[in-house]
Amino acid sequence: MDLKLQHYIEKQLTIKLNTNLTFKWESISGGSINLTYKISANNHNYFVKINDKSVFKNGFKEEVLGLKFLKLNEAITPKIILEGSFNSKIYLVLSWIDKEFQNNNFWKNFAHQLANLHQHKSDKFGLEYSNYMGQLIQKNSFFNKFDNFFIENRLKPQVKIAFDKKLLTKGDLRKFEYLYQQLPTILPKEKPSAVHGDLWSGNYISTANNKAVFIDPAVYYGHREIDLAMSLLFGGFSLNFYNVYQEIYPLEKGFNTRKDLYNLYPLLIHLNLFGNPYLQSIKTIITKF
């Protein structure tokens, strides 16, 4: 940990909170992209993430906007304490959320929370600004139809990166072009919903009151099935969660087939960030459709 950066953040916290604090820093696990810490200060705890300016050109501003987007659409999020930069580093300080055991009441509440988020609608698919999925830029240009949005803002940019890195072949590109032609007949028609955008098991926290706190968003107005598909990509949530969601806000038939299409996007992201281990899953899906 850079001691100058540490002291700078401590100073900014002291100014923000208008009180003298004694700080204790603890390094914690927090994903593959950022350095993450728990700060303890006079019976209060804070979560801190740190990265290089070269990774996110606007610092953590897009993440702050994403948390505000979720809160505006009635989702529970950590409180934003500080966001800024110092020398070559960027930082974000959030309120600390203690994790609790995930019981049946939690999964029921989580399903209600996600369905409530998805019931916040917009006239178009997209968002006023671009943000990030992992450390790759996520375009959010507005479209009237989700298939156009998904092709132009999600699949095509990642396919181009993968092809330029020689991870995909010209034959793979032809399969993707054929897939693009099929999407309008496969994807169900719904109004754009507020979505988390990167909803896997590492991007929520279960709390003592059996509610989910949403973290690390990649938000926009999209098709709500995106969130449910993503939640299934790396192991899935409790079956109770999906059953309750289906009771509250039923999906059109065929979701278990469509989920693979939606997950092409996060799989392409992982391919471009981490390489070949994700290639076969992508080839299997595009061949299937």
TrEMBL record:
Classification via InterPro entries: Fructo-/Ketosamine-3-kinase (IPR016477), Kinase-like_dom_sf (IPR011009)
Domain of life: Bacteria
Alphabetically ordered keywords of this record: Kinase, Transferase
GO MF annotations, alphabetized: kinase activity
Residue intervals passing through the bilayer: none
Pfam families for this protein: Fructosamin_kin
Family from the record: Belongs to the fructosamine kinase family.
Protein name: Fructosamine kinase family protein
Source organism per UniProt: Lutibacter aestuarii
